[in-house]
């Protein structure tokens, strides 16, 4: 399936998908709890990122430490509640190349072209690329037309508040009369989607490598009270060292212990409770994780169909057929994640995400090594190659009037 065939839907629960879906009984959520554990020794650049574990964990090198959880929450809440302002404009940057286009904007590699260079643009991971960033350009008019004002503003607020090894780094944001701009870490290896398409499918060991990083990123987000809601290969970039970077937080939402009700995401990755439209929480990310693990190992989605309504029916029924080549442990973890009953879905039970991390499919994995990026990447992208072949360059629109000033006031 091509990238263009994957489309995003954003509907409210008032818009019915199908009368049959509305007659299905909603399954109650169960509460789960997790606590933080300190990192101990390791590189100083990573020591500020706490790892996460449940109080029943017996994972080596993890110790319960409530203070680190409290510190991470306080830092997030401070940045989320008091956004930083930046004195920048589009003319401060030299355009290097286009990286991609979205429904209402584009992404370009740019280089800061003024002196002196702000400290926040220094690249520690790749000094030769200092001052180079991925500039996400969002057209106000298009975002307004698609009623995405809240999602756009929310994405910026969440991104500027996060700090985790497997989540794309936020550098700055600014706006002008026509557009909104977000400066992000430049990730040069392309999308996981493209790499999966080139390989057709991954060996289990390779899928496990990527899955482990995604799980840690979800663990971090969930402990901050954030549900991601758009996990798919297109939203996972591969950096120059072969590691994952989660990007595109347009559908992410801070719900803490509450529920969300908006139907949003990508059809093949939607959890049953999203389609049912009666409220959901972090469990939808674990369902999407199950779809992703299946797709990486099979090369196709467990619920794919050319007819979108049939996709929804398959998801509601929860029936899929694993490939015969799947190992027993792979089949078990996928079935545990693609569990309609939330009281039985991996990640949503008493031990929380540790039921996933301790699953037999990950038996040979050292989670501390994963966190510290000390596991060897199975594939290193050639960053000299064109890893964004479908990108088209387009000059941002200009307006003499400040468009939708009220709607984007908080950006």
From TrEMBL:
Record domain AGC-kinase C-terminal: where: 363-411
User: Could you state one GO cellular component term attached to this entry?
Assistant: nucleus
**Any matching Pfam family:** Pkinase
Among PANTHER family, the record links this protein to: CAMP-DEPENDENT PROTEIN KINASE CATALYTIC SUBUNIT 1, CYCLIC NUCLEOTIDE-DEPENDENT PROTEIN KINASE
**Which species is the source of this protein?**
Rotaria magnacalcarata
- The segments labelled Disordered in the record are 41-62
The Protein kinase domain extends over: 93-362
Q: Please name the SMART domains in this protein's record.
A: S_TKc
From the Swiss-Prot or TrEMBL record, give the protein name.
Uncharacterized protein
């Amino acid at each position: 399936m091509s990238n263009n065939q994957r489309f995003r839907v954003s509907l409210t629960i008032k818009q019915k998908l199908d009368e049959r879906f509305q007659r299905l009984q909603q399954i109650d959520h169960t509460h789960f709890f997790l606590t933080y554990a300190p990192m101990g020794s390791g590189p100083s650049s990573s020591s500020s990122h706490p790892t996460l574990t449940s109080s029943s964990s017996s994972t080596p090198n993890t110790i319960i430490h409530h203070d680190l959880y409290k510190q991470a929450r306080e830092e997030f809440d401070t940045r989320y509640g008091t956004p930083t302002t930046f004195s920048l404009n589009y003319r401060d940057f030299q355009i290097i190349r286009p990286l991609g286009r979205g429904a209402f904007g584009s992404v370009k590699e740019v280089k800061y072209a003024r002196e002196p260079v702000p400290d926040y643009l220094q690249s520690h991971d790749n000094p030769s690329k200092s001052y180079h960033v991925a500039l996400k350009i969002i057209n106000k008019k298009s975002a307004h037309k698609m009623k995405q004002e809240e999602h756009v503003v929310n994405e910026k607020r969440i991104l500027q508040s996060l700090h985790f090894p497997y989540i794309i780094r936020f550098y700055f944001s600014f706006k002008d009369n026509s557009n909104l701009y977000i400066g992000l870490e430049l990730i040069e290896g392309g999308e996981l989607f493209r790499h999966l398409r080139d390989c057709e499918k991954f060996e289990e060991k390779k899928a496990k490598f990527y899955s482990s990083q995604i799980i840690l990123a979800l663990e971090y987000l969930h402990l901050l009270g954030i549900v991601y809601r758009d996990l798919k290969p297109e939203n996972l970039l591969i950096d120059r060292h072969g590691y994952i970077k989660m990007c595109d937080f347009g559908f992410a939402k801070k719900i803490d212990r509450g529920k969300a009700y908006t139907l949003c995401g990508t059809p093949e990755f939607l959890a049953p409770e999203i389609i049912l439209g009666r409220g959901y929480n972090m469990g939808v990310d674990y369902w999407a994780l199950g779809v992703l693990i299946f797709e990486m190992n099979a090369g196709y989605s467990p619920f794919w169909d050319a007819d979108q309504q049939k996709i929804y029916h398959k998801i509601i029924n929860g029936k899929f057929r694993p490939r015969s080549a799947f190992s027993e442990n792979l089949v078990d973890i996928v079935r545990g994640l693609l569990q309609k009953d939330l009281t039985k879905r991996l990640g949503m039970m008493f031990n929380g995400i540790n039921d996933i991390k301790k699953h037999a499919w990950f038996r040979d994995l050292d989670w501390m090594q994963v966190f510290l990026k000390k596991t060897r990447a199975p594939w290193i992208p050639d960053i000299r190659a064109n890893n964004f072949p479908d990108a088209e360059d387009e000059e941002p629109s200009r307006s003499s009037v400040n468009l939708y000033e009220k709607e984007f006031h908080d950006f």
